[in-house]
## 1
Amino acid sequence: MKGRFHDGLSARPSTVEVAWIDDGLRFAAEGGQARFWPQVGLKVVREGDQARLSHPSDPDARLVLTEADWLALGGSAAVAVEKRGRVREFRLVAGLAAAGLSVTAFVFWGVPVFAGPLARATPIQMEKDMGRSFDAQMGAMFRRCEGEAGQGVLDELGTRLSMQSDTSFDVRVRAVQAPFVNAFALPGGSVLVTDDLIREAETPDELAAVVAHEVAHIEKRHVMQAVWRSLGVGLLLDAVVGGGTGAGQQAVLLAGQATDLRYGREAELEADERGQALLTAAGMSSQGMAPFFARMHGEGEDKRLATAAEFVSTHPDSARRAQRARAYEKAGAPALTPSEWAAVRASCGAGSKDAVTRLKDRLRRRGDKTPVDQGDQVGQD
Amino acid sequence: MTDATLDGGPINDGLGPLHGVYPQDFEAGEVLRFQSTLQPKRFLGLSLRNGLLNIVTLTLYRFWGKTEVRRRVWQGVRLNGDAFEYTGRGKELFIGFLLALVALGLPMLLTVFAIQFGGPAMIAVLYPILYFGLFWLWGFGLFTAFRYMASRTTWRGVRFRLGGSARSYGFKYLGALFLSGLTMGWFWPVAQRGLAEKLWDELRFGDRRIRFRMARAEKVSVYGWYALGWVGTLVGYLVFVIGMVGLFAALGMMDAPEGQPPGLGFTLGIYGMMLVLAPLFLLIWSPFHAAMLRSISAGVTLDGAGFHLDVKAMPLWWLTVSNMAALLLSLGFLTPWVQARTAHFMVSRLTSAGLAHLDLARQAGRGPGSGEGLADAFGFSAI
């Protein structure tokens, strides 16, 4: 039967006589040289009424037959030729799935495991430089409170606690204005405590517990760990999915964020424990932590308060943490004198209303329309 | 005989004759007839399969999936009875992606670190370089992607080839964006034709040069339609803002105190309005997009053959809107189906007049070994 042959050298077609002989295609143009394409390696593409054949021995050449002619000519061999392509594809998919699984395993276990040693190996000066840059960015977002007397007390509290810790960073604590209850440790030793948190703390010991928790983060270099972890997970997943916007790609990136959250919680528990130890070592009471967490969780208090507290949204197991804190707490001296406490409370302009009323006001204004602020990604809170 | 000056005689498509010397000793050329055998519904299965395999392989399959879609789209387009063929391989796209990761990812990473550790002075130095560098690189990536695609497209066994310089295209692209910005968009139609010229004029089928003739392209007017889109967008934007303010005032949602983030209802309202308005904005721009497609296709010539893409505003608008809806509702799964129906739409409207000497084309070299990494990194994909 007749076919159309393109020799791969020019676009001029020639008509050829085609036959299936000796497990392969034999064809020749009139007066031209005969060619033989064995079944092994033969590839076919069927589209519409045509079948286009090619063979690796003649990579640019193509033989075009009608689909009916090809099926009649190749017979059972035609089916075998098409099946071979499917086996190759199955192998490819299996290989890629294995590669995908390996990347997943590395993201979920490898990166978090490496983040600790990497953080400890990060030069102190490098973290300080990075901290300065973060600090400038945070400073632009959250204005420093103006009550300098209170700021001094807060900073001094941070210094007293950091003296009990094993850190090379100069811990600097400051109060900032922000519309949520939270505290952050930044790379390099800065700690930011929000005005809402200061108003929410009922005793100096509660505030000291939060500051001790942040100092523990700095000592354990959790902030740098989080930086390396999110950098590692983010980079790796971005590299794999290519920063695409498809649903599959977004799903992969979301899964990556989940691993960050999981390891973040472990760091929180470690910081709680160490924070209480620092308080005790500094001679302060560590009995402020449990009631603060319990109140944030909403035990016996206005439940809506808990839903508004940022501290809870990034620390989802506050009830358990409160229980643990209660188990390890020790009595000690008050963290601040009454006058110091008053200065801290006044540092951001406490306003005329008490904290609960202020938060209630905020909740009433927001209604159910606004999700709770999700906080910042650079710090460890 | 290689290029260029061969004409199949004057063509009669209303855009003027193609001048050249017709060599008497050559056989007559052939009229180019395009045909699409694409059936978009046959891409539904492929859409589902590619989507699922992407998930199973943590999206690594996407290079092979894209290759398969192209293979099937190309083979559904015929010229004078012979189907085009896409000979690219998933592995080549994957390698291109890895190369781009090193070429693009590493400098980006270093820049991010330098900015984090280097402070404001470093930011002042690096940002402009990064900003302009990225636009240049975008153009560069686009050109190399087209070069790769051309080299992996064959017809009657003969490869296409895109010559020219990707670097110079990158600068032209950067200039086009810059001048369009300076002129509030009014330079863009000129820029688009200029960029098309730089691509099409460097394209060859085997050793036969395809030419872009600007004079022919400019005979299809586009600026009137551009003005419609530009003014319409301005008016539409004002109406949108006034409408939103009015709507939310009427619903009593404007009393959020200062400094508070807007509520969920407000945000959803904005997105809802955008979803409703997007088809309207596309509608006022579709006459321009259709005219630009007609203009560029009119500029392309091969020997004595010219092309005509019979695209009108309303069918193009419907294609775009229905494609967008399909992609949104299927979370991107239907991408192959969208690509197939778009290709079918275009090819079935493509005609040619005049004669081309396809038979004289001789094979071109193999082209680049890997493909499209940079364009992929920027999220660009012609198909």
## 2
Amino acid sequence: MPRSALTGTRIRERRTMIGMRQADLARLAGISPSYLNLIEHNRRRIGGKLLVELARNLGVEASALTEGAGAALIETLREAAAGHGEAEADLPRLEEFAGRFPGWAGLIAERHRRVRELERTVEMLTDRMTHDPFLSASLHEVISAVTAIRSTAAILADTEDIDPDWQRRFHRNLSDDSRRLAEGAQALVAYLDEGTEDPGVQSSPQEEVEAFLRARDWHMPELERSLPPDPARIVAEARELTSGPARELALAHLKRYRRDAELMPLQRFSEAARGAALDPGALAQAFGVDPGAAFRRLAALPEDRAGGSVGLVACDGSGTLTFRKPVEGFSLPRFGAACPLWPLYQALSRPMAPVRAVVELGGATPQRFLTYAICQPVLAAGFDGPQVLEAAMLILPEGTVALPRMAAQPVGTSCRICPRRGCVARREPSILADGF
Amino acid sequence: MDKRVLLIEDEPNIIEAIRFILARDGWRVDTHADGTTAFDRVAETRPDIVILDVMLPGRSGFDILRDIRADAGLGGLPVLMLTAKGQVKDRDLAERMGASRFMAKPFSNTEVLASVRELTGA
């Protein structure tokens, strides 16, 4: 199924840019001008030989006409249409719509993103109200103090012949409990105040850390030096890290980064990495580290040293993604669960067994990636447990390494936006399947 | 002979207040603050009624109630549950598990006294 993602618009842009008339391009490509006109307005789908022919006459690669920023917009609009009966019925005309009304399409996509963000905020606030241990402990404290005060005060008010010793005792209790109540109430107010100012409500701590790392291309030159600055200082100075939890996560990441850098010095590691064609198994052997550390180090290499982009995704024992460094063409879901067919999850089900696989992501032009995955126990609580597992998957695009000759496993990003109709691992219907 | 109440609660000032009210009404009041050993104390003292807080250190009041109801000798003992969460959920759970009565904090003294009298037929 071809997915032109505004291919027509691109053809028209390219043609006008090089000053070619529509009729001339149509003649060169062997089609009628009116048919080309329909194509350029995204009213007709285009693919195969005709696309190649048009691209040749426009002096560009066919892929330049089919890929690009438009794809992301289309994807977001598809998501926005999910579950909306009438919009879903109109899915076949989505590209035409986005092409003819780019402003409206942009608005819908933007609103959809905003709604998703707000839904997430509401979810977080609800979680906070119901599960927050501090809130529940504070409320318990306040209610206990109020109970004691009410009961004691009633005794003092209602007992006429109260013994002076008892009276003194109850007065002292009242005084103690009212102080406790005041403190508890103040703590609650401070906590709720902090909540309204907490920018972490806007996005999750993990997203803040990702923004922080993305801005630095996931590489920290200052932590590669022999006398690095204190990671806590880097965190304190980072503008992207606004919430307390995000700073905590970032600090843990940077400390681990520094340990990895000490065990695998940049110069020696990047040379070895290129020599081993980025094979994390060979590198783990060579540097005497566990494979997970080699994964992280490879993902922290600058692109010019790695010979291309390197993606990394990690999850905990529940399958929740805990680290995301995406690569072009292999998008990682922001919320919710990913594709159960990822080698990451195969590794999770077999701790310590290494997994190497070539995967193919569905889409207009299926892309292939070499992946390495492994699941290791963290031993955070020692051998007596509870056992904490961490799985990671290294993602190497075809441009970064040569793919080994092995059958490619079909995978997706997340079921909702995956076009693989007959997938046995499907968890919910795709919103794409009926769109074509 | 005096009727006996066992008060299982960990807030000292609440203990003091309840003890005072009930003692003035002629009850002998024993108290116990630790959740883990509370059931043993019930079995040992065999009171006429237990006032049981839900949030206790070591063990929840619900667990203690379950043990009391499962015990052949103590099964019919009246139990008045106290909780800081007057939630419907907790109330339902307490009723299902066989609490004789459920009272949300902050309670009034007269309410406690009336409940204790009523549940023991005093």
## 3
Amino acid sequence: MSAIKVSNLCKHFNELTAVDGLSFSVNEGDVYGFLGQNGAGKSTTIRMLLTLIEPSDGEIEIFGLNLHSHRKEILRKTGAVIERPDLYKYLTAFENISLFAQMSGIRLSRKELMDRLEQVGLSERAHGKVNTFSLGMKQRLGISIALVNDPQLVVLDEPANGLDPQGIADIRNLILHLSNHEGRTVLVSSHLLSEIELIANRMLIIDHGKKMVEGSVQELFKTPEMIVEFQAVNADKAMTIISESSWQKFFSKRQEDTLTFKLDRKDIPALNNYFVEKEIGVLSIRPVHSLENYFLSLTSSAQHVEAFKN
Amino acid sequence: MWKLLKIELFKIFKRPRTYISFGAIAAMILIIQLGLKFDGKSYLQLLMSGISDSFYVPYDMILNGYLVAFVILNTLLIQVPLLIALVAGDAVAGEANMGTLRLLVTKPVSRTELMLAKFFASVVYTVLLLIWMALLALCLSMLFFGTNDMLVVRNDVMEQISRNDVLWRYIAAFGYASVALSTVAALAFFLSVFAENSIGPIVSTISIVVVLTILSEMKIPLYDDTVKPYLFTSHMLAWKGFFYSKANGNGQAIAGSVENMPAILRSLGVLLAYMIAFVTSAIIVFRRKDILS
């Protein structure tokens, strides 16, 4: 059964079309990666899923119920962290979680609330004001608040934003725990594409508000065409030889002594043989499987390349 | 709804800046009381300059707790809207600014319930501020200056209200003032829906109240019937009507009477109509609003 089913979703802000006929579905138990460059429409879509933004057109079903007509019922089973973990800075961690538990219609004892804070490693700072917390601590508190009502669906919009490597690893482990051990459905958006690659079982890539590709992460990476980096001893000579050969059409870019090709997996040995025949020393061959390059392979736009380099 | 109201009140009274208003009111009242305690006679001479030439004025008797409270109310009820706007103007815009609005709206409560809880929390704050003001202005003045018959000066005419006939008038006046100030809270609350920073709605509320008050007080005949009756600011000071009593054949005030109760009720109706219009509009706008903060 689909946890989320989105059909032909559109959102217009005056002349700007932020989301354009988007359709996708998230299965129960999925860790669903939601990818796209900045401004692609990810946050707008997530805000529509959480009733923060009213769609211009289209339908959203969550747990088989129409979001518009069953809003409260759906939100009772949903938890979310949207972009920054903004909380009441003048309140303590305990007061924040207690307040949002009440708003979610949950009655939890003091001990239960402290247990929730313990789960994210904040029990010792439970009575510290949030304005004294680091970003990582705020993010953990935000996640604890999102989970306070034991939601079946957890929506995390850019949860790793601004976190240090340890914080990012903690979030990754938490998401995997929520899915593998607690059976929750997780929708996670991120611009740290390598993170999605590590945690998601299904994913959606959007661009300019439109769906580019959706499917299982494993299957999407099984595409025969892949990106391969050849590091050559004499890159200038290698460039000349390639430009005069039929391999030219597979050439993608050059960065110092590394030549990047977009080609079929089975053609890698043939290209290597060609370099050997032409007496070009190959120092290394590195097939690049990262989601980032997969995304780049879907778009030839220089704008995208620059966006993801930043 | 009650649960949401409790949450909103908890948030308001956990913020240190909420207490600025209570501190400011206490400071202003104490300053006025001290001034009148040490130089009240000069103040009364100035106030009654038109009458004291014709009549003997017993200043010591007149300067009692009831009159001091009246002076304080008359002075402060013009400034208090600023303090009300500080909280009511922050109700939605402040949450948007902090980024907590998006978290609130993703909780299983309707936007209408959320808005009503926020508005009623602003009203509770307003009423508590007035109770605080009443305690300091009335009770403390009664303690410092004692009680006696109250003298009210209106259009160079002195009216005397028996000391036994005063207290209920104050209760009614504070009740009326709480409606008047809740109307200001409703205006600030309405403007708060459009902003993502509370400074905008606070400054806008004060500007609107100041401009409309000037318009209400201007002596331009053209505006008297065409504009003034429809401005809420023209009705905000109608609480004074509770201190104007009917007179008997001997020109003495009739205990328990109010000179023009229908006018007070009409003003109350105008304020309530404005309040309902502001809050309803705020809810309608907020229900349709895309939360982008």
